[in-house]
Design brief:
The complex is a heterodimer of chains A (508) and B (261). Chain A has 508 residues and is of the alpha+beta class. Chain A folds into four domains: 65 residues, MutS, DNA mismatch repair protein, domain I, CATH 3.40.1170; 161 residues, no CATH class; 104 residues, DNA polymerase, Y-family, little finger domain (Dna Ligase, domain 1), CATH 3.30.1490; 84 residues, no CATH class. Chain A has 15 helices and 20 strands. In chain A, the strands form five sheets. A six-stranded antiparallel beta barrel of chain A has the order 15-16-17-18-19-20. In chain A, strands 5-6-1-7-8 form a five-stranded mixed beta sheet. A four-stranded antiparallel beta sheet of chain A has the order 9-12-10-11, with helices on both faces. In chain A, α5 packs across α10 and α12 runs parallel beside α15. In chain B, 31% of the residues lie in helices and 24% in strands. Chain B has 261 residues and is α/β, with parallel strands linked by helices. Chain B starts with a helix and ends in a 12-residue tail after the last helix. Chain B is globular, with a radius of gyration of 18 Å. Chain B has a nine-stranded mixed beta sheet with strand order 5-4-6-7-3-8-9-10-11, sandwiched between helices. A two-stranded antiparallel ribbon of chain B has the order 1-2. Chain B has one domain: P-loop containing nucleotide triphosphate hydrolases (Rossmann fold, 3-Layer(aba) Sandwich), CATH 3.40.50.300. The chains are: A alpha+beta (508), B alpha/beta (261). Chains A and B meet through α15, β13, β15, β17 and β18 of A and α4, α5, β5 and α6 of B. β13 of chain A pairs antiparallel with β5 of chain B.
């Protein structure tokens, strides 16, 4: 477990003047400090102070508005960026909020179990993390320990500006925690105060006390926090993003910038992911590519496939169309490709399913339909490729719905009603028409300002509104449809509803 | 030019030579054609039918009105392709207003058509080219307002390479003011409405008739045909041949005077 803490990130931003800087919030009609930077702290300022008092102490104090939502967003972005170390990154649930809360700083928890060897050991991983974050302008404290609780405590209470990170060796959490104050156990301020009054100033003094003594005075929380820190009670982390079980990761020795390099990286990742999916007999339905940039930001690209697929060439081609939109920023250090949604896919299915054959096996799938649909949807947007399927409705515009491009359902029968046009206007267009008699087709009509004389006509076909769907406040009128032919031979589908005429479709 | 010279001389002995030259032009591959049904139309076209694995352009006489007509003519060409081949028909358009029940009423199963909604002309043409690379499709149909020369050539090459037939329906609200330069399409058709055929009662609409004009076709002279759609087969039959011989001798002029009306 590892934790680090970020303090007063605003103060360290490069475009800010040299400190002292404080963030100010309005509270109960007064302006008070929400957070202060190092220089301001040295001058004696502390969060919670009134701005007027602070100005009296430090006339040159620069201030900015405290925006907790923006801080929370920035922290979430940072936690997502930490995905370059491990997929299991989470915001610290014990924090009251950035700049405030328990322990005075915002935190991110990372579960690096099994990841540290990728970065040359735990100490090297922590050093790398702290250096990168410092370069981005954050003040960071980090610790790595057996439990989240121990890491939290050590990061906040056993590190200093000169030595901002510390690794607790496995099994040594108790020793590391022993000299720390009880506040390191993530306790509410009231409990800490009471402990201080009782003269309990170190955690090792608490560890030895029987729980029966503590519980009536402090409630179950203290004992629970103690057990969590020592690893006697489990403390699950809920990661920022669900951790996909199918993930391929590639760390580059040098940041890559060009589209060709990124394409090559995708190809390598797709090959690795394909092998893993094959071993697990799964196919990806949704792919997610994440680029971790040098400057601590990340870029995500997600796309879906129409059928489960694990063919590296197919996955690579899907992303190829999107590469133009990828912004590598100052360079990409780490890339991951994850199959966020998968479906079981056996080798046998690949052989039996003619549609998927090309898409999922190793050979080139120039002729496979699934690949084509995926490429089209990748560029034009999902849902742009569809088939028409009938629905049970009398209303012409409701008789059709969009179905998936691959027919999972048995083909339904189309109703045989009266004449239906080849093209149906998205919205019926109002026309000026004159009919000699009611219930008769119009003798002439104006559509798009051009007159048409009706020579032949067929109808009416009455289509009643669907009262069970209508808004009872605005009931629709029944429509009388006519198929008419004008003197040139063009055929239109007109209807009359409530005395007004509309043009709804074009015939051949 | 040589072909047109040969066409004019019309010597029977040259027919074999002409086929040979055409085969050479295509790199020796035999010309695959789709017979359209009416003998007069098929005899007019090179090889006895509509060339497969090529791009064909279809436009309406009144660009803003004849969308239904153009779609119907295109479907009459596509339906036999869909019947003969396994794959679906890719239909790419900006507005997906083709109406399933209308298709079903004409004997074409809407489930055979894979609709693609594209954002603009460029995306329509891109999607057509992608589709033409996929040999599993029965045909590719795109609706676009403009077709640039280079885009047309790309589509024609992709159709030739993949063997899939492509149809480009010209769909626009405003008719162009000047004549467009010929595109790389193998043929170009213009469809105009004509008063319908006989009906049981004189006031009812009869079988739809179209005035189909072959504006340009590689290896064939322009021509004009009055066809009638056959409800039973979904194809069409020839109602009457219009000025066929006269048009053949004339250059492919297109004037507003020949709009159906």
């Amino acid at each position: 477990m590892e934790r680090w803490r970020r303090a007063r990130r605003h103060a360290a931003q490069a475009d800010w003047p040299a400190s002292p800087v404080a963030l100010v919030r309005a509270e109960a009609g007064r302006l008070s400090l929400a957070a202060v930077d190092g220089a301001a702290e040295l001058a004696g300022l502390a969060p919670g102070m009134l701005l007027a008092d602070a100005r009296a102490l430090l006339p040159g104090l620069k201030t900015a508005a405290w925006r907790p939502e923006a801080d929370a967003r920035a922290l979430a972005r940072l936690a997502a960026w930490c995905g370059r170390y491990t997929p299991w990154s989470a915001l610290d649930p014990a924090d009251g909020g950035p700049g405030g809360g328990l322990g005075g700083g915002a935190g991110i928890l990372l579960d690096v179990t099994g990841c540290s060897h990728l970065f040359g050991g735990e100490a090297a991983l922590l050093a790398d993390l702290v250096t990168r974050l410092c370069r981005q302008g954050f003040t960071v404290r980090a610790a790595l320990a057996d439990t989240p609780g121990a890491a939290w405590a050590v990061a906040r209470f056993a590190t200093s500006a000169g030595e901002p990170w510390s690794v607790v060796p496995p099994g040594r959490a108790r020793t590391a925690l022993a000299p720390l104050p009880p506040a390191a156990l993530r306790l509410p301020p009231a409990s800490c105060e009471l402990l201080a009054r009782l003269g309990l100033r170190r955690i090792d003094e608490l560890i030895d006390l029987p729980p029966a003594l503590l519980e009536p005075r402090f409630g179950p929380e203290l004992a629970q926090r103690l057990r969590q820190a020592l690893g006697a009670a489990a403390e699950p982390l809920s990661p920022l993003q669900p951790v996909p079980p199918w993930l391929a990761r590639r760390v580059f020795a040098e940041p890559i910038l060009t589209a060709e390099d990124i394409a090559r990286g995708i190809q390598l990742l797709a090959g690795e992911l394909g092998r893993r999916l094959e071993a697990g007999q799964h196919g990806a339905r949704q792919l997610e590519l994440t680029l971790y940039r040098v400057d601590g930001t990340l870029h995500r690209l997600a796309l879906g496939t129409s059928r489960p697929s694990r063919d590296p060439a197919h996955m690579t081609r899907l992303f190829a169309d999107k590469l133009g939109r990828v912004d590598p920023g100052f360079g990409v250090e780490v890339m991951t490709l994850a199959a966020a949604v998968t479906e079981p896919l056996t080798a046998l299915q690949l052989v039996l399913d003619p549609m998927a054959t090309g898409a999922a096996t190793g050979r080139d799938d120039g002729g496979a339909l699934a690949g084509l649909i995926d490429r089209l949807e990748a560029r034009l947007g999902s849902g742009t490729v569809f088939r028409q399927a009938p629905t049970e409705s009398h209303l012409p515009e409701r008789a059709v719905r969009r179905g998936p491009p691959f027919g999972a359902e048995p083909p339904a029968a189309w109703r045989r009603a009266g004449p239906r046009p080849l093209r149906l206007l998205a919205h019926p267009e109002a026309i000026e028409a004159t009919a000699l008699l009611p219930d008769r087709p119009p003798a002439r009509f104006h559509w798009r300002r051009v007159p048409h004389r009706v020579v032949r006509a067929e109808g009416p076909e009455r289509i009643a509104p669907e009262w069970w769907r209508e808004d009872p406040a605005r009931p629709g009128s029944p429509r009388d449809y006519f198929r008419v032919e004008d003197e040139e031979g063009r055929r239109y589908w007109l209807y009359r509803a409530a005395g007004r005429w509309f043009l709804h479709g074009l015939f051949a | 030019m040589i072909l047109e010279e040969l066409e004019k001389t019309r010597k029977p002995g040259l027919a074999a030579l002409r086929t040979k030259v055409r085969a050479l032009e295509r790199g020796g591959r035999p010309l695959r054609v789709l017979p359209l049904g009416p003998a007069a139309l098929d005899d007019h076209l090179p090889g006895g039918g509509l060339a497969l694995g090529a791009l064909h352009e279809i436009e309406g006489a009144r660009a803003e009105w004849d969308d239904g007509l153009v779609a119907a003519f295109c479907l009459a060409l596509v339906a036999p392709l869909a019947a003969a081949l396994d794959g679906p028909v890719l239909w790419i358009a900006r507005q997906a207003d083709l109406y399933g029940p209308g298709l079903a009423a004409r004997g074409l199963d809407p489930a055979r058509i894979l609709f693609v909604r594209a954002g603009g002309d460029r995306e329509v043409l891109w999607a057509m080219e992608e589709g033409l690379r996929c040999r599993r499709l029965a045909a590719v149909v795109g609706e676009a307002g403009e077709l640039e020369r280079s885009a047309g050539r790309r589509l024609q090459l992709a159709a030739e390479a993949g063997g899939v037939t492509a149809f480009l329906l010209r769909r626009r609200l405003i008719a162009p003011h000047r004549a467009e330069p010929p595109s790389a399409a193998r043929s170009r058709w213009r469809v105009a409405p004509a008063p319908s055929g006989a009906a049981p009662l004189p006031e009812l609409p009869g079988r739809p008739r179209w005035r189909v004009e072959l504006l340009r076709c590689r290896g064939a002279a322009p021509g004009e045909f009055l066809v009638e759609r056959d409800d039973a087969t979904g194809g069409f039959a020839l109602a009457a041949a219009l000025r066929d011989g006269a048009l053949a001798a004339r250059p492919a002029a297109r004037g507003a005077s020949r709009l159906a009306g």
